[in-house]
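YM 10:42: Polysaccharide biosynthesis protein sequence, as discussed on the call
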Amino acid sequence: MQLVRNSLYSLIGTLVPIIITLVSVPLLLGVAGQARYGVLAIAWIFLAYFALFDLGLGRATVIRIASATKPTVTGKESVFGSALILGLFSGLIGGLVLWASAYYYFSHVMQLESAMRDEIELALPWLILAVPVSTTLSVFNGVLHGEERFLELSTASTLSAGAFQLAPLAAAAYFGPNLGAMIPMTVVCNLLVTVIVGITAFRVLNLNLRRLSFSVAEAIALLRFGGWFTVSSVIGPLMIMTDRFLIGASLGAKAVTQYTIPFQLAEKTSILATVISNVLLPRLAVINESQRKELAVKGSRALAGLVTLAFSVALFFLEPFLAIWISKDFSADAGLAGQILLVGWWINCFARIPMVLLHASGHAQLVAKCHLLEFFPYLVSLFFAVNSWGLVGAALVFFLRSLADFILLAKLSGMLLVLLRLLCAPVALILAALYAAVGLDPGSKGWLIAMLGSLGFGSVWAWRQVSDSLLSSARGLMRSKRA
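YM 10:58: structure's back
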C-alpha cells in the first residue's frame, strides 16, 4: 500500500506541473513571441545542463539516506551536511562556468536580433546564482526522496515548476516581453522555493543547522557514487539537449520553439515511468539482489501497460492538440517530429527501471559507461541529420539513441530478455498507432476506426498487465506475512 500511495503522490506532483505548463506556454508565447520563447528555452536548457554540477549528489543522497541503517553508512545528519556543503560549493563553480558558456553561445553562435541579444546578456549574470540554487534544491529533494516523503517531494516539484513557468509569464505581463526581467524573476522565485524545501528537509530529519556535520569519509562516499552519476548527468542531458543547440545555430530561434514544445509534450507523456522509477529507487536500495529483480520486473510489467496506452493516445492526438493549443501552422511544422519524439520517449520509459536497478545495486559506473559509448555516435549523427532533414532528422536521431540506451541498460541489468518478451504486444500497438497517426487525416473515418481499435486493444492489454502486477505483489505480501 505504501508503494501505491507514494506512486499516487508522485503522480500528482508530476501532473500538476504539466497542467501549469499547458496553461502557461500559450500565454507566454502570446506575450513574448516564439523567438523570445526559444531564447528562454535555450537559457533553461543551459541551467538544466549545468545542474550537473551537483556532482550526482542528489541521487547519491537518496541512496545514502535510504541506506542509513546499514553499517557502511554514517548518520543521516552527516550525509545531509556533507551533501549540502558539497552542493553549495560545486554550484557556485558551475554558476560561473554557465555564465561564460551561455554568454559565448548567445553572443557568437545563436542567430539573434540585436535587441534580444542585449536583453539576454543583461540577464545572464543571474544564472550564476541559479546553479547553486539548483544544486542545493537537488540535495534537499534527495533527502525527501530517500525518506520516501513523496507528498512533500511532490509539493516541492509543483512549486519549482510554478517558479519556472509562471514567473517569466508574470514578469512579461508586468514589465513587457523583456528577457532582462523574465530570467531574474524566475531565479528569485526558484530561490524562495529552495528555502521552503530546505526547511521541510530539516523538519523531516528533525535536524537544525547546528546538528549538521561534515564528514570527509561521507563526502568521499557521496562523490564516489555521485562521480559516476555525474558522468551520466553530463552525457545524458547533453545528448538530450544538444539537438536544440544545433537547431538554434542552424535553423534559428523559431525552429527551437517548434522542436522544444513537442519535445516537452512527449517528455511529459513519460511521467508514469518517472513516477514508478522514482518510487522504486529508495526501496530497491535496501533489499537484496533477488528481491530487486522481482520488484523491477513487477514494476516493468505495470509500466508497460500504462505507458503504452498513454503514448498510443498521444500519437493520435498530438497534431490536433497542437493545432488547437497553438495554431494549425505550428502543428503542420512540428507534428511529424513530435510523433517521432513520442516513440523515442516511449522507448526511453523502458530504460528507466533497468537504470534505477543498476543505481540501487551500486553499479552507477555501468550506466555512465553506456552513456559514454552512445555519446560520439549520437553527436555525429545529430549534426548530419539536423543539416539534412531539419526537425525530423533531430527527432529520428533521438529515437535511435533511446533505442540503443534501452538495449544496453536492459542487458547490463539482466532484464533484456524479460523486457523483450514483455514488449512484443506494445511494439505492435505503438507501430500501428504511429502508422495511422502519420498516414491518416485526423478526424477522418479511417483515423477514427484506427484510433478506437488501438485504444480498445491497448486498454485491455494495459489492464491485464497492471492487474497481473498488482496480483503478484499481493501474493508476495501474503507469503511474507505467513513467514
